[in-house]
Amino acid sequence: MFNVLKKAGVVLAVTAGLSAAAVSAQAAETYKLDPTHTSVIFIVNHLGFSNYQGRFGGASGELTIDRDNLAASSANITIDLTKVDSGVEALDNHMKTADFLDVENHPTATFKSNSVELIGEDGAKITGELTLLGETKPLVLDVKLIGEGDHPMTGDHVVGFSANGTVTRSEYGMTYLVPAVSDDVALQISSEFLLQK
Fold first, then answer.
1. Residue 88 φ/ψ, nearest 5 degrees
2. Candidates 3.40.50.1370, 2.40.128.110, 1.10.455.10, 2.60.120.260; correct CATH number of 3-195?
3. pLDDT tens digits, residue range 123-156?
């Protein structure tokens, strides 16, 4: 997909959850998301005064890379919403309620890709479906290859990406405090994936 990936025979299938459809069985490689080196950050505007940041822990998923057809790569990502972390315990507890994430009924969010458009030497636009609060809507992620190679300490083959996207929370029924807390939520994701042998 990217120049570097073409040389390495690797393709990007991002962090967020992609389906394995249309992947060459012979050429495809499976990568597991490394949760210890994955960061999922969300940013909302608060009353026009600040862009407030928090994060989600507990990400998991797979990336499928097709060496022969990079655009056919895919990913399947799950985010544990119960591990929301704003740095303020009271706010975290509120975000877990039905006002926001309703984790009692919807403890996870998933992203499944359905297309990969290669852009330039190290980028891609990944289109997929985000399921949140029981609703499934399209989500586009702008993805950039950060690095790829063998881990110097473990020997694992690693590929790492950053991804950015925007979720409009009211589309999922999360209308509480809109627009005081912005309807659009920016996502900034950084993740490493390990080749499965």
1. -130, 115
2. 2.40.128.110
3. 999 999 999 999 999 999 999 999 999 999 999 9
